[in-house]
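Sample entry (196 residues):
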Amino acid sequence: MNKFLLSCILSFALLPAFAQVSPADSQYEPNDLQPRGSYNPAAPRELKQFDFMVNVCDCKSVNRNPDGSWQDSVAMVWMAKYILNGTGIQDFSWKEGGLASSSVRQYDTTSQQWVVTYFSFPGVTTAPGVWLGAWDEESQKMVLKKEQKAPNGMEGNSVLTFYDISEKGFKWEGKWISTDGQFTWPFWRIECQRRR
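Predicted structure, serialized as C-alpha coordinates:
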Protein backbone atom coordinates (compact mmCIF):
# COMPACT_ATOMS: atom_id res chain seq x y z
CA MET A 1 0.00 0.00 0.00
CA ASN A 2 1.53 3.33 -0.96
CA LYS A 3 2.03 6.10 1.60
CA PHE A 4 -0.55 8.42 0.03
CA LEU A 5 -3.31 5.82 0.19
CA LEU A 6 -2.37 4.92 3.76
CA SER A 7 -2.48 8.57 4.86
CA CYS A 8 -5.92 9.01 3.24
CA ILE A 9 -7.29 5.94 5.03
CA LEU A 10 -5.92 7.14 8.37
CA SER A 11 -7.30 10.65 7.80
CA PHE A 12 -10.79 9.34 7.14
CA ALA A 13 -10.57 6.93 10.05
CA LEU A 14 -9.65 9.76 12.44
CA LEU A 15 -12.13 12.30 11.03
CA PRO A 16 -15.09 11.25 13.24
CA ALA A 17 -12.97 11.75 16.37
CA PHE A 18 -12.18 15.33 15.37
CA ALA A 19 -15.66 16.09 14.03
CA GLN A 20 -17.46 15.25 17.27
CA VAL A 21 -17.87 17.94 19.88
CA SER A 22 -19.34 16.92 23.19
CA PRO A 23 -22.05 19.07 24.80
CA ALA A 24 -19.56 19.93 27.56
CA ASP A 25 -17.27 21.54 24.97
CA SER A 26 -19.91 24.10 24.06
CA GLN A 27 -22.31 24.25 27.00
CA TYR A 28 -21.51 27.92 27.75
CA GLU A 29 -21.96 29.11 24.16
CA PRO A 30 -25.08 31.10 23.26
CA ASN A 31 -28.04 28.75 22.84
CA ASP A 32 -31.85 28.74 22.89
CA LEU A 33 -32.00 28.90 26.69
CA GLN A 34 -29.19 31.43 27.11
CA PRO A 35 -29.00 33.53 23.93
CA ARG A 36 -26.03 35.49 25.26
CA GLY A 37 -24.16 32.45 26.52
CA SER A 38 -22.85 32.21 30.06
CA TYR A 39 -19.69 32.45 32.12
CA ASN A 40 -17.59 29.28 32.21
CA PRO A 41 -16.46 28.54 35.81
CA ALA A 42 -13.14 27.34 34.34
CA ALA A 43 -12.50 30.82 32.89
CA PRO A 44 -10.57 33.49 34.81
CA ARG A 45 -12.88 35.06 37.41
CA GLU A 46 -11.87 38.48 36.01
CA LEU A 47 -14.06 37.71 33.01
CA LYS A 48 -17.03 38.73 35.16
CA GLN A 49 -15.63 42.29 35.22
CA PHE A 50 -17.17 42.74 31.77
CA ASP A 51 -20.41 40.98 32.69
CA PHE A 52 -22.17 44.37 32.69
CA MET A 53 -21.89 44.39 28.89
CA VAL A 54 -23.57 41.00 28.40
CA ASN A 55 -26.92 42.44 27.47
CA VAL A 56 -28.45 44.70 24.83
CA CYS A 57 -28.12 48.43 25.39
CA ASP A 58 -29.60 51.44 23.64
CA CYS A 59 -26.97 54.15 23.46
CA LYS A 60 -26.24 57.68 22.35
CA SER A 61 -22.87 58.12 20.66
CA VAL A 62 -21.11 61.43 20.01
CA ASN A 63 -17.80 62.06 18.25
CA ARG A 64 -15.59 65.13 18.34
CA ASN A 65 -14.69 67.22 15.31
CA PRO A 66 -11.06 68.21 14.59
CA ASP A 67 -11.92 71.83 15.56
CA GLY A 68 -12.87 70.68 19.07
CA SER A 69 -16.65 70.95 18.71
CA TRP A 70 -18.83 67.92 19.30
CA GLN A 71 -21.09 66.43 16.63
CA ASP A 72 -24.77 65.75 17.26
CA SER A 73 -25.36 62.48 19.07
CA VAL A 74 -26.50 59.47 17.07
CA ALA A 75 -28.42 56.36 18.12
CA MET A 76 -26.42 53.21 18.70
CA VAL A 77 -27.18 49.65 19.82
CA TRP A 78 -24.43 47.87 21.77
CA MET A 79 -24.78 44.23 22.75
CA ALA A 80 -22.46 41.53 24.00
CA LYS A 81 -22.38 37.79 24.56
CA TYR A 82 -20.09 35.14 25.97
CA ILE A 83 -18.04 33.27 23.35
CA LEU A 84 -15.26 30.67 23.24
CA ASN A 85 -17.36 28.39 25.45
CA GLY A 86 -17.79 31.06 28.11
CA THR A 87 -14.13 32.13 28.33
CA GLY A 88 -14.35 35.37 26.33
CA ILE A 89 -16.82 38.14 25.54
CA GLN A 90 -17.65 39.57 22.15
CA ASP A 91 -19.53 42.79 21.70
CA PHE A 92 -21.21 44.27 18.64
CA SER A 93 -22.35 47.82 17.99
CA TRP A 94 -24.40 49.39 15.24
CA LYS A 95 -24.48 53.16 14.85
CA GLU A 96 -27.05 55.20 13.00
CA GLY A 97 -25.63 55.81 9.54
CA GLY A 98 -24.46 52.25 8.92
CA LEU A 99 -21.29 52.08 11.01
CA ALA A 100 -20.66 48.81 12.83
CA SER A 101 -17.95 47.44 15.11
CA SER A 102 -17.06 44.41 17.18
CA SER A 103 -14.52 43.62 19.89
CA VAL A 104 -13.30 40.36 21.35
CA ARG A 105 -12.44 40.60 25.06
CA GLN A 106 -10.19 38.04 26.75
CA TYR A 107 -8.41 38.12 30.09
CA ASP A 108 -4.74 37.11 30.10
CA THR A 109 -3.92 35.57 33.48
CA THR A 110 -0.17 35.69 32.79
CA SER A 111 0.00 39.47 32.34
CA GLN A 112 -3.10 40.01 34.53
CA GLN A 113 -4.69 42.31 32.02
CA TRP A 114 -7.46 42.49 29.50
CA VAL A 115 -6.70 42.05 25.82
CA VAL A 116 -9.35 43.72 23.66
CA THR A 117 -9.20 43.39 19.87
CA TYR A 118 -11.30 45.83 17.83
CA PHE A 119 -12.78 45.50 14.34
CA SER A 120 -14.94 48.00 12.44
CA PHE A 121 -16.94 48.54 9.27
CA PRO A 122 -16.91 50.07 6.70
CA GLY A 123 -13.63 48.67 5.54
CA VAL A 124 -11.84 45.43 6.30
CA THR A 125 -9.56 45.38 9.33
CA THR A 126 -6.35 43.59 8.42
CA ALA A 127 -4.47 44.80 11.51
CA PRO A 128 -7.05 45.28 14.27
CA GLY A 129 -6.32 47.61 17.16
CA VAL A 130 -5.49 45.91 20.44
CA TRP A 131 -6.04 47.66 23.78
CA LEU A 132 -4.68 46.32 27.08
CA GLY A 133 -5.92 47.21 30.53
CA ALA A 134 -7.49 46.35 33.84
CA TRP A 135 -10.34 47.04 36.21
CA ASP A 136 -9.50 49.79 38.70
CA GLU A 137 -11.19 48.81 41.94
CA GLU A 138 -10.73 52.21 43.58
CA SER A 139 -12.37 54.26 40.80
CA GLN A 140 -14.73 51.44 39.69
CA LYS A 141 -13.61 51.94 36.09
CA MET A 142 -12.36 49.67 33.35
CA VAL A 143 -9.39 51.38 31.66
CA LEU A 144 -7.81 50.11 28.44
CA LYS A 145 -4.80 51.64 26.65
CA LYS A 146 -3.01 51.38 23.32
CA GLU A 147 0.09 53.26 22.22
CA GLN A 148 -0.93 55.60 19.42
CA LYS A 149 0.62 58.65 17.82
CA ALA A 150 -1.48 61.78 17.34
CA PRO A 151 -2.04 63.00 13.76
CA ASN A 152 0.78 65.51 14.32
CA GLY A 153 3.20 62.72 15.32
CA MET A 154 3.13 63.35 19.09
CA GLU A 155 3.63 60.20 21.16
CA GLY A 156 0.75 59.12 23.36
CA ASN A 157 -1.96 56.61 24.14
CA SER A 158 -5.53 55.94 23.12
CA VAL A 159 -7.36 55.40 26.41
CA LEU A 160 -10.81 53.79 26.56
CA THR A 161 -12.73 53.97 29.83
CA PHE A 162 -15.96 52.33 31.00
CA TYR A 163 -17.44 54.12 34.02
CA ASP A 164 -20.69 54.88 35.90
CA ILE A 165 -21.47 51.17 35.60
CA SER A 166 -24.75 50.09 37.18
CA GLU A 167 -27.73 47.81 36.66
CA LYS A 168 -29.19 50.51 34.44
CA GLY A 169 -26.25 50.86 32.05
CA PHE A 170 -22.82 52.43 31.68
CA LYS A 171 -20.84 55.24 30.09
CA TRP A 172 -17.79 55.03 27.85
CA GLU A 173 -15.17 57.54 26.79
CA GLY A 174 -12.36 57.38 24.28
CA LYS A 175 -9.58 59.93 24.66
CA TRP A 176 -6.02 60.49 23.53
CA ILE A 177 -3.42 61.37 26.17
CA SER A 178 0.14 62.49 25.45
CA THR A 179 2.90 60.34 26.92
CA ASP A 180 3.84 63.08 29.42
CA GLY A 181 0.17 63.48 30.44
CA GLN A 182 0.17 67.19 29.63
CA PHE A 183 -2.37 67.00 26.79
CA THR A 184 -5.72 65.16 26.76
CA TRP A 185 -8.18 65.03 23.85
CA PRO A 186 -11.52 63.26 24.41
CA PHE A 187 -12.69 62.11 20.97
CA TRP A 188 -15.73 59.87 21.52
CA ARG A 189 -18.37 59.47 24.23
CA ILE A 190 -21.14 56.91 24.57
CA GLU A 191 -23.93 56.62 27.15
CA CYS A 192 -25.88 53.35 27.31
CA GLN A 193 -29.02 52.11 29.00
CA ARG A 194 -29.86 48.42 29.32
CA ARG A 195 -32.96 47.15 27.65
CA ARG A 196 -35.42 45.64 30.11
